[in-house]
From TrEMBL:
Taxonomic superkingdom: Bacteria
Gene name tied to this protein: kptA
Protein name listed in UniProt: Probable RNA 2'-phosphotransferase
GO biological process, one term: tRNA splicing, via endonucleolytic cleavage and ligation
Similarity comment: Belongs to the KptA/TPT1 family.
Length: 192
């Protein structure tokens, strides 16, 4: 690990966002492009990850563990986790092999923020993972609102009766304190 305080101070918001995006891309969507292989929990060796990121993107100054930790701590969303010299994305995966997440008992109610234009389809088919491995749910309405605003200025916030679904045997996976994952959500558990 390089102690690179000066390098960090030079990192502006745009650079941090760029690094964040590339980290998400590598750890959620296309590790292959970086010559990386995630384990079944989505983890990869941190040093291999840093080498790959630097090789592909030619970061100057070089991307270090300290910079990544700084970005992670400063971010509003907890997207990544570093543990035992490995790093993973906590949610959002779209790679072919299913990534396993810890199963947990959910809060009684979860929320899902979405675009109003998707509602007719969601009312009919329920929530589906679409391009990702899992449906993503928010622990609170503010988070759901922020998620929905990515696609609609006035998003629809759906209430998911997680307690009823859990009782019926639906499995819930924990990503972080704000984000929960399920395989899909039947329309009967959803309300406005
Ligand atoms: C919608 C970001 C039509 C669903 C966010 C959503 C989150 C349907 C979109 C995380 C549907 C999928 C995930 C159906 C679901 N018919 N539309 N039957 N079922 N949809 O991006 O939940 O910033 O894959 O409502 O903040 O929006 O990247 O999922 O609008 O936490 O860290 O299909 O990604 O996090 O969109 O977002 P997404 P999401 P980051």
């Amino acid at each position: 690990m390089t102690n690179n305080k000066d390098d960090q101070q030079r990192l502006d918001g745009r650079t941090k966002m760029f690094i964040n995006k590339k980290m998400s891309y590598a750890l959620r969507h296309n590790p292959q492009k970086y010559g990386l292989k995630l384990d079944k929990y989505g983890y990869v060796d941190l040093h291999q990850f840093l080498d790959a990121m630097n090789r592909v993107h030619h970061f100057r100054p070089r991307l270090t563990e300290m910079t990544i930790r700084e970005i992670m701590h400063g971010a509003k969303k907890q997207r990544f986790k570093i543990k035992n010299g490995q790093i993973c994305a906590l949610y959002g995966h779209s790679i072919p092999g299913i990534i396993k997440h810890p199963e947990k008992v959910p809060p009684k109610v979860l929320s899902h923020g979405t675009a109003r234009r998707f509602l007719p389809s969601i009312e009919k088919r329920g929530l589906l993972p679409m391009g990702r491995q899992y449906v993503h749910l928010s622990a609170d309405v503010d988070t759901a609102e922020a998620v929905g605003k990515r696609r609609d200025q006035h998003p629809a916030i759906l209430k998911f009766n997680a307690a009823a679904a859990h009782k019926d045997g639906v499995k819930f996976y924990y990503a972080n304190d704000q984000v929960w994952l399920v395989d899909q959500v039947a329309p009967k558990y959803l309300s406005r």
